[in-house]
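Lab notebook: predicted structure, single chain.

Context: the supervisor wants predicted structures on file for every construct in the current expression panel, including those that have not yet been purified. This is the next one on the list. No modifications to the sequence; it matches the entry in the shared construct table.
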Amino acid sequence: MHWVTMWGNAQSTVVPSPAVYAKDITLRYPIFIPFSGKRIRITFDNFCCDEDVRIEGAYLSLGRDLTDETIGEPILLTKNGSSSFIIPKGESFTSDPIDIDLKEGTYLIISFYLKEFTKLTSGVDIVGPLSKGYYAYGNQVLKRRLDINTSKSTSWVYFLANIDLYTEDTNEAIICYGDSITSQDWPDYLLLALRKAGIRNRSVVRKAISGTRILREYTCITYQSYGYSGYHRFEHEISSVAGAKTILIQHGINDIIHPVGVEVNPFRPMTDLPTSEELIEGLKFYNRLCKKYHLKVFYGTLLPIYGWRTYQEFREGLKNEVNEWIRKQACIDFEKEIGIARNGYIQFLEDCDSGDHLHPSKEGYKRMGSLAARTLVDGL
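Prediction complete. Output recorded below exactly as produced.
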């Protein structure tokens, strides 16, 4: 038996709004359980907030599905025996382990209560067929179902970083690391495709932040939700995942498409535009850290950008140079799977484009997840 992270997220800074603080609020997250375990521990992370956060009660329950309905009695989470705990600014902590019999294919629901004014700036936006969250006014952590009049679904995950199971030695985690393309659906479809192929001893742990770049990060409030650079955040995220042996990295497109010049956007100077050599060095930096943590690396090719609002031919050339290097590594060729060459440019297949010519459609994400699963199955 060993500890394996069955579910996880990166931490970023949420999209800014005038309402920065929340009070007297319940957060609830249903989590799919990919394999069975006998013990559980939860990691809360305050990596991107500059104030301490106090949780006044956190519970886990069994759930029916991605709805907020719980089954059975809630179990209190503690830290050093206390039910009230603080997450220091910029830090994380892991709860005391709890003995519980969790069955593969069922759901776990995590609920926690923020009683006092809490700065809700540390979180990440995640979507997919296995991803959903809820918030509710008042202390509703012990309710079997949240009050429909005072609760609402949300795709934002606050402070909840990793859920670890004490499980069989044959079970392990796969990390999916990247930007908005990875914070959206394909990691969920990867897990579903693995299970369909009969691979039920793997979890998929998503460490992705929309808008993030490898080489640079924003300091302005306008783009604060784009988070830290890969150089800043990569080790923090991968080092927290227990029982991982494999990582899939699909990152770098924002370094290419963001810079437009200060005359267009004061926060996106053209001096931010990297060379292909600089981007490739960033990917090599990831690989060096992965060796430190004994992770086998698969790189995903960057997706088509033809038609995106900042598209220019020099960006296409830069992307293609990076992809040429990626294809010489252990590679998952996402671009080839959901793209096609037309008139000298690589474009999305028609049914794989969400419409913005940068992010895939649901069909595109399904194909990405299936391709990643096939690649991994071949190596299992």
